[in-house]
């Protein structure tokens, strides 16, 4: 078996006709002309060391250069550039920058431009900061140079937010570094004082070491420890003492007591303990922030998924515009591999689309003409065209993001309970600390303050405060990575009480992609006319059955006064004639309750028999739910025969056909009135009021927006196995919460007891406290294995 040859630049497998180029006397092969031209430029400019230094393969270079001329528009530069002494400054995201060699190549290549003054490329976060003179070089030319090397540039979105995150992270790391460096020095000087057990050290030497530790400790307390001091002041202003109050009290008490002892010539100081408090507490705080940022990672990815520019087709020509100027009705060209800029309808015959950010599905999904494309998805290897339906803040992605942000900003009931518990615990521990000081003052006055300080540190409820939010935030993010978005903060908590699951049929238990099985047209209408009328009536409808008529016919009649009657059908007018499409009782009174009927002014024109297959995994997933002790129900507006067929196939004994939204609501209320806790799973406009009534609701991502906005949980890839997944993650979340709370309470109880006995140094008490917080945080991260 022969070994496959790879491109010298991007390491992709070579095709049947590779490009060969002589580089430094050695023939090299490339997969395409784009990579060959990039390598030729790198070699010509004396940057060939890049190929020796790189630790990862380069990115494939597009043979057809992209047009970045729109990036020179005044509105674009005003929004993304800042003035600087050199002219302008911008931060770009460089796709494909993976290692230090990539960063070096980018910096070296851009600095060869006469207009560029400063380039800072960071391979860790993929950002390139450029300062240049716009009178000598345009932004588009710099971006084109990056693209020619295989690093596709993007404008940084929410740069202010990202900068604030980086500033906060860098500030915390700087504080931690200072605390770690100075604490070790403080402990060394304090050790000299501890070793003088015989009291042989002169007062001058002793005071020298004390003042030295004071000088070293002060920046640790007031700079590195400012996180906790500010937190304490905030908690006291709100009248809710918590973790920061105990932490800052311990730090400041040890510091000022030591300063008092130094000034008065007392026997003991605790500057080292104060510095250790800050070091260990800050380490725990940084780990907690890391876990919290990890739990927001998927939402941040979704927020950055929309591009800044779109290719609009005007009079047959492609012109690049900022996404803010794209309007509903515009026809856009979608380049291969680029993100979809807005919601719309696919005009091209077929495209492969990557929807992994939205649904968690890693495989490309094939979309056909007439299908909906969502902002946030990315095209596969083919290009195409789409007609825009919604843009900006009105896209489904933006609306979902607002709901998710709202859910993450709210506190579940367990969080509020844990915070109240921690607040009361703090007040109790202050009382215990005072009591410990008083008791030990009677036993051994020299040990009274160290014991009280150790009790105060050991009592800090860091682990208790993190026990619940760490588990909840990790569960939310673990589900988001799998394509499940939690829109209600209490949704996962309530799932443990559910004993009834009510399913809609179309699009939930079935594929939601119906096909026409038969068309019966009645005089004076023929089959082609009936299909055209049905298609025109269903345009814009989000009901899954609308897909059965999509694309039927060529010239479509235009209806006025289109109206959707949930649970019944749709109507519209052409002149004085009223057309109806829907159930027999709505569109064709007196006809058989089977299929969909089309009528004009009450006269039947056609009957459509549809087939919507049951989802392949439905039987297995519903059997698992039944084995878990939950009763399943099927409510559908479909015919009795069709509902019976689906219910029998899935072994659902509780079923109801021709259920209007009102009947569904009554059915749900009856279950709740008899003590039932109900989960509703649906996807249509008909399901929206029922979802609002249910104890917990789940909506399919392929369904109507009204249903999604009323749901507590959104299943983005519309697979029933995600229902099982949500139950599994919710159950694991509750187990982790109980484990964390038990550990936190046990730790605080044991640590306080040991501290009361006088057998632990205050500094080591802070080490135990930080360790308990770390354990709780790491334990919460185990939920990612359950979600995957």
Alpha plus pi helix count: 26
Radius of gyration, in Å, reads 33 Å
Average pLDDT reading? 80
End-to-end Cα distance, whole Å, is 36 Å
Q: Specify the overall morphology.
A: flat
Percentage of residues in DSSP E strands: 15-25%
Number of strands: 29
SS class? alpha+beta
Residue runs with pLDDT of under 50 for 5 or more positions:
none
Strand order of the largest sheet: 17-29-28-27-18-25-26
- Main sheet overview: 7 strands, mixed
State the helicity in percent bands.
40-55%
Characteristic terms for this protein:
6-stranded antiparallel β-sheet, 7-stranded mixed β-sheet, 788 residues, flat, alpha+beta
Structure characterization notes:
By secondary structure, this protein is an alpha+beta fold. Strands 17-29-28-27-18-25-26 form a seven-stranded mixed sheet, sandwiched between helices. It has a six-stranded antiparallel sheet with strand order 9-8-10-16-11-14, with no helix packed on it. Strands 19-24-23-22-21-20 form a six-stranded antiparallel sheet. Helix 23 (705-709) links the parallel strand 28 (696-700) and strand 29. Helix 6 (159-194) packs antiparallel against helix 10, helix 9 (243-264) packs antiparallel against helix 10 and helix 15 packs parallel to helix 25 (762-780). It is flat and about 115 Å long.
Which helices and strands appear, and what pairs or packs with what?
Layout: E1 19-23, E2 26-30, H1 33-44, H2 50-53, H3 74-80, E3 82-84, E4 87-95, H4 100-111, E5 116-122, E6 127-132, H5 139-148, E7 152-155, H6 159-194, H7 203-224, H8 226-238, H9 243-264, H10 271-303, E8 309-314, E9 317-322, E10 331-334, E11 343-346, E12 350-354, H11 356-359, E13 365-368, E14 372-373, E15 378-379, E16 384-390, H12 396-409, H13 413-443, H14 445-458, H15 462-481, E17 484-486, H16 491-494, E18 500-503, E19 515-521, H17 527-538, E20 560-565, E21 569-574, E22 577-582, H18 584-587, E23 596-600, E24 603-611, H19 618-627, E25 631-635, H20 640-649, E26 654-656, H21 661-673, E27 678-682, H22 688-693, E28 696-700, H23 705-709, E29 713-715, H24 721-757, H25 762-780, H26 783-787
Parallel strand pairs: 18-25, 18-27, 25-26, 27-28, 28-29
Antiparallel strand pairs: 1-2, 3-4, 4-6, 4-7, 5-6, 8-9, 8-10, 10-16, 11-14, 11-16, 12-13, 12-15, 17-29, 19-24, 20-21, 21-22, 22-23, 23-24
Helix pairs in contact: 6-7, 6-10, 7-9, 7-10, 8-9, 9-10, 10-15, 10-25, 13-14, 13-15, 14-24, 14-25, 15-24, 15-25, 24-25
